[in-house]
Amino acid sequence: MRESKLWSWHILSGVVIAVLLGIHMAIMHMDAVLEILGIGSGDPIRSDAVFYRSRQLYFMITYIILLAAALFHGLYGLRSMLCELSLSRALEKVIGTLCTAVGLVLFIYGSYVAMTVYRMGEVLP
Amino acid sequence: MQNRLSNRLGLWGWLAGGRYGPERYVYALHRLAGLGILAYFLLHIFVTGTRIQGPEKWESTMQFFGTPFFKIGEFLVFLAFAYHAINGIRLILVELALTIGKPGLPTYPYSYSTLRQRPLLIIAMLVAGIVMIIGGADFFWLTK
Questions:
Q1: Mind listing the pLDDT tens digit for each residue in B15-27?
Q2: Of A18, A74, A120, the CB nearest to B38
């Protein structure tokens, strides 16, 4: 039951990532194509563009949602692959706990960065 | 207690297609692409974390990652993402049983679910290929 629930979350997070990361990839890595289509906004990794986006509430929220979905999807996928190698129950438990801990730490760090940079708008010009 | 079969082949069990056909190789590549994306993503969290130290630090970090070596690496991540995402959508459709057709009596020539799903596999690979070509054009020719 628990595994099938986690598997459903894995699928759901995959859909969330496909949408949000698809937009992210289009903005960050298909900027020249977007420019040709008339919807580009210059070099997306220039600091003014990066900080402009980071200070928008919409981007801050989607970064955190994407972070959570990608961490869950990636680490659950890794755990599933490792557990397929016929490991002992104890080792499977250790891998599960490690993936959860790493995911939580990175989620806290990433969210902290997203929220701090969002608030930096009040300090930076 | 759940009964589980032993994975006698280990890592080879992931990678070798055996008699299973193209779907099995697509599956192995899906996993490899996923692992590559995960490795990049974990580093990406720390790289984008440099924003917290202000615009100057961000510019210097991007200057470091602006070399051709990292640009090619970034393109490989883009290829992995395009493949993993589009094949992932196909897998979700398969998982939801939307591609296996209606049940019926077996009539000659016999069909099976993998065969019925194959057109979707071909479409997914074509779409992934088109996205990869557009991405490649953006990375190497269109970006000044």
A1: 666 677 788 889 9
A2: A74
Q: What class is the A2-123 domain? A: mainly alpha
Give the pTM.
0.86
Query: Quick one: B110 exposed, middle or buried, by C-beta within 10 A (0-12, 13-18, 19+)?
Result: exposed
Among A25, A80, A116, the strongest candidate for a mutation testing the B interface, having the largest count of B CBs within 10 A, is A25
Residues B43-71: pLDDT tens digits? 999 999 999 998 899 999 998 888 889 98
Residues with Cβ within 8 Å of residue B31, at least 6 apart in sequence = A77, A81, B14
Q: Which CATH class is domain B21-140?
A: mainly alpha
In one-letter notation, the amino acid at residue A66 is: L
Q: Write down the ipTM of this complex.
A: 0.88
Which of A33, A75, A110 has the CB atom closest to B134's CB atom?
A33
- Spans of all domains in chain A: 2-123
